[in-house]
Amino acid sequence: MTARELREAFLVDNLFPADSIELVYWETDRTVTGSAVPVRSALKLETDKELASEYFCERRELGILNIGAPGQVTVDGTVYEVAHLECLYVGRGSRDIAFTSNDSAAPAKFYLMSYPAHTVYPTTLATQADANKIQLGSQETANRRTIYQYIHESGIKSCQLVMGFTRLEPGSVWNTMPAHTHSRRSEVYLYFDMPEDGTVFHYMGPGDETRHILVHPGQAVLSPIWSIHSGCGTRAYTFIWAMGGENQRFADMDGIGARDLR
Fold first, then answer.
1. Which of the residues in the chain have pLDDT under 70?
2. Most exposed: 18, 146, 173, 240, by fewest CB within 10 Å?
3. Which residues of 217-248 are buried (b: 16+ CB within 10 A; e: fewer)?
4. Phi and psi (nearest 5°) for 28?
5. Domains in the chain and their CATH numbers?
């Protein structure tokens, strides 16, 4: 595939327009990814014909992570205050979901990830203090970073959704190296928290025939089960990782040594 074809197939570049909910349906694992940026008024999450449901979460679970200013998510009449980089899990069967910003001059930017769900887990809010934090990497390898796990086996309970974010330290630019695949789960990466002229080279493809996609702030990459997913930026950045599939074990991956990459 050419660079243009790769971008058309795997890059999500229409996220975070003001006063809009944008959703992308990806047939792999029936993933839905998207955004909600309420400015002038509340935005209500609706269903669509691809879901063949009466309401969005009739047979789905939803992960919400706010990369903007503080806002509110109302789920069936209960209001959840969601600050910057906080996460809200919405369980299957939640009927009415709406988004608002606390200040229209500084709107919330809600990133959305959803997978089908077979049972009900409670809607749960988690702050950064609640996240399971893992520090990895070093300055010598330019990948010193902190992983914040929100929805995972030992955190917020879900059917198949796993979600959190990784923040790179200043001077570090590499994430997830050595590369790996996990054929049991698909994944989506959202890159943000870098200057508008910042760029991440997102590497993908089978380990023996890699490609790259240039990614800018607020863009996401769909990562199929057969693909590596690793990035190197022009400076430090933050990215949300979210996945769903056969299991929720974060460490379930098949590593590929750097010398074996082609």
1. none
2. 18
3. bbbbbbbbbebbbbbbbeebbbbbbbbbbeeb
4. -65, 120
5. 14-119 (2.60.120.10), 130-245 (2.60.120.10)
